[in-house]
Amino acid sequence: MEAGRPSGTAAQPGPGCGSSVEASLRRLETDRIDLLQLHNPRMDHLRRDEVWDLLEDLKRDGKVRAYGIALGPAIGWRDEGVWGIQNRHLDALFIIHNMLEQDPGREFIDEARKRDVGVMVRVPHSSGLLEGKYTKDTTFDENDHRSHRKREWLVNGLRKLSKLGFLTEDRGMTIGQAALKWLLADPLVVTVLPNIYDDAQLVEFADASGTPDLTDDDLSRIADLYDNDFYLAPAGADA
User: Fold this and answer.
1) 232 and 159 in contact (C-beta within 8 Å)?
2) Topology of 71-231 in CATH?
3) What is the pLDDT of residues 24-47, one digit of tens each?
């Protein structure tokens, strides 16, 4: 993460955060970190005023341009995210959010909008489901985190995916591109970080910027589908 001169880095909150920033600046051979994120801060970290006083000092001294929190590792951490947005002067929020996994992301974004906090999104393709390559027969290597999920994750995910065909029909757009366009339809989302596994996927996702924006009707249909669990009948009933 520190190879070259990246614009952002992550840190664990605590008394040593200041010295860690100084060490990072030396290793990066730069005098400023554009974005410093506290990675997976627990509630006690968020409540420690000295951590945030230090971040403000670093910002005032020009060593950090902006700071925020990166939530995870799972999609949860709802309480930490909402409390952090409401009680700390965050510049940025880094979350998991996608068409199939919208909570608690929707609540984070609503809170961030009230305070003009920029949102960065990872896992925009729901761990690959929204790439359009999986089938019910797909298997995962034992070292792949998806191999530890219940089979229902794949089966139900594919059933939900089948309800999103209107996003790609006669549009010259892949579902992977539509997933990115859905996120970027919200002006509060400043960037999306998809996982990229090969050159073809890099080209596909980069080309999303040249595809038509989703319409208000598209966005309403997606919201309705999500709010109604994609109108899925019990497993097997609609087979």
Assistant:
1) yes
2) TIM Barrel (3.20.20)
3) 999 999 999 999 999 999 999 999
